[in-house]
């Protein structure tokens, strides 16, 4: 795309959309989006901008997923730390698993269920947003990730001219 404000060609829209759609390809999608950005950043400001956005978004999603996973593992330890001493004490006093054990088991199952459901919804939401970005590009409509568009503009030579609002 040579002139700022010019509509992207079909091939540019397709390549930009594919860069966003690569969120479905796991971490390899981020790597391939970076390759698309590297190859196209000087040829097409449109493709370079969208490939940069897609790569940044996908890398950000994976970093946040790792942080979230560690937080969830930490959260799963709360029932162990809070209730396990009660279970041990009940066992030492010759009592059965009893109420403390039941509370412990329900806590573990409850926290695990909530964290699994939350992580599934967050993952699906992140993927859906990437797919939405791809659809916008395929249609030739403007799309900007809220926090990443300005960084992507700096990564693309024509990025300062590229303002898809």
Structural write-up:
It is a single chain. It is built from five helices and no strands. The protein has 165 residues and is mainly α. It has one domain. Helix 3 runs antiparallel to helix 4 and helix 3 crosses helix 5. The longest helix is centred in the middle third of the chain and has 48 residues. The C terminus is likely disordered.
List keywords for this structure.
165 residues, rod-shaped, mainly alpha, single chain, disordered C terminus
SSE topology:
Elements: H1 10-21, H2 26-40, H3 45-92, H4 98-138, H5 149-155
Briefly characterize the structure:
The chain is mostly helical and 165 residues long. The protein has helices at 10-21, 26-40, 45-92, 98-138, 149-155. It has one domain.
Assign a percent range to the helix content. over 70%
Overall pLDDT confidence: 83
Biggest pleated-sheet summary: none
Distance between the termini: 17 Å
List the domain count as a whole number: 1
- Overall body shape: rod-shaped
Based on helices, strands and strand pairing, what is the structural class?
Answer: mainly alpha
Number of helices: 5
What is the multimeric organization of the chains shown? Answer: single chain
Portion of residues in beta strands equals under 5%
Order of helices and strands: HHHHH
């Amino acid at each position: 795309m040579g002139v700022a404000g010019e509509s992207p060609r079909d091939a540019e829209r397709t390549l930009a959309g594919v860069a966003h759609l690569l969120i479905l390809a796991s971490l390899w999608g981020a790597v391939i989006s970076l390759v698309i950005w590297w190859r196209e950043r000087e040829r097409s400001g449109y493709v370079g901008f969208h490939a940069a956005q897609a790569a940044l978004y996908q890398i950000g999603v994976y970093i946040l997923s790792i942080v979230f996973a560690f937080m969830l593992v930490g959260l799963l330890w709360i029932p162990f730390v809070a209730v396990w001493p009660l279970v041990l004490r009940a066992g030492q006093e010759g009592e059965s698993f009893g109420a403390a054990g039941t509370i412990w088991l329900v806590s573990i199952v409850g926290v695990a269920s909530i964290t699994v459901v939350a992580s599934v919804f967050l993952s699906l939401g992140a993927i859906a947003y990437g797919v939405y970005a791809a659809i916008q590009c395929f249609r030739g409509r403007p799309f900007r990730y809220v926090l990443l568009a300005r960084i992507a503009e700096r990564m693309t030579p024509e990025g300062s001219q590229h303002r898809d609002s």
